[in-house]
Amino acid sequence: MALAAAGLRRATPLAATGLFLGANAPDVDVFSGFAAYYESLAFRRGWTHGVLALALWPFVLTGVLLLWDRYVRLKRKPDAAPARAGPLLALTAIAVVSHPTLDWLNNYGLRWLMPFSGRWFYGDALFVIDPWVWLVLGGAAFLTFSQSRLARVRWAVFSVLASVLIFANTELVPTASVLLWLGGLAAFVAARWWLRDAPPVMLERAAQAGIAVTAVYMVTMVAASAVARSDVRVAAAAQGIVAEDVMVAPVPADPFRGQVIVMTRDEYYTGRFDWLAEPRLRLDAESIPRPRGTAFELASQDAAARRFLVWSRYPVIELTPDRGAIRVTFTDVRYRGQNQNRLEGPKVFLPASAVESGGD
């Protein structure tokens, strides 16, 4: 919406529609959630988000839009200007690429190289729901797409629902962030009133400024995450911890703090990173063993476990006696303790004799 508001909607008829479709097309893989357990984790952010799909989506969407234009839109409005293939192809390409780029920014991950490689890439820069991106890009779109009373009602509903996410998580969201969010909403409402009679070109410039600010914010957060990872490696080494991999992932609504995972050959160390604290890194007292051994090997053969492990970045298992068997619960350290969207992981039951004979 912000791209459309910035002037791209004037490139050709159906430009805004092309931008909307392109920005959402890769998420057609959401339907994998109706398949087998954990199939969504194994399939999502893969085929439909990878380089091959990114090359094909613009042509598919442009073809669909041109067919719609010819056989539906122009039949209803014979005097309307027809959509132009070239601009539509360019706009859908921009929109399609924007989707995995934004997905990559969080710590959930994205497989850029699918179907040629299943490697996951992680930006570790923005929380999966970043209120500042919503505020600035949403505000930029609001200034343009709020001309009618009905549109303003819709924006009001959206703002209330977005604010609920902030107010319902005050244990995670700092008070300063709550106040900044409310101040930002008020500022955009005031700007809408001030620009109520502004020419379209002024609104387009406002949207362009919003996109530019958001881009600078994103680049800054990517760079800050890289510096934080380097700091964590050095600080961990000073404590005798040799890191094989480090994650400093963003936390809700606070760009100055991060969730830390340090992976060594045998363990995970978790903690927090705070740019404004001294020391910046604080690791938890207890480490978490990396999964290995007979129980892990046997449980990993389960279909649901295999799907989960396709996605899992820092897998861990918990062994629990359960009615004569051993329950193996898979989790990922990134989301340990969370049971949302099946991120907790599958439970596999193994005969106790099989685990004991393996020496676990």
Q: How would you sum up this structure, described in words?
A:
By secondary structure, the protein is α+β, with helices and mostly antiparallel strands. Among the domains are: 121 residues, no CATH class; 60 residues; 67 residues, no CATH class. 49% of the residues lie in helices and 14% in strands. The protein has 12 helices and 8 strands. The strands form 2 sheets. Strands 1, 2, 3, 4 and 5 form a 5-stranded antiparallel β-sheet that branches. It has a 3-stranded antiparallel β-sheet with strand order 6-7-8. α2 runs antiparallel to α4. The protein is globular.
Summarize the structure.
The chain is of the alpha+beta class. The chain contains twelve helices and eight strands.
Measured between the Cα atoms of the first and last residue, the distance is 55 Å
What is the mean pLDDT?
93
Share in helix: 40-55%
User: Rg from C-alpha positions?
Assistant: 24 Å
**Major sheet details:** 5 strands, antiparallel
Low-confidence stretches: none
Per DSSP E runs of 2 or more residues, the count of β-strands stands at 8
- The shape is globular
Beta-strand residue percentage: 5-15%
The ordered string of helix (H) and strand (E) elements is HHHHHHHHHEEEEEHHEEEH
User: Could you say which structural class the secondary elements and strand pairing correspond to?
Assistant: alpha+beta
Number of helices: 12
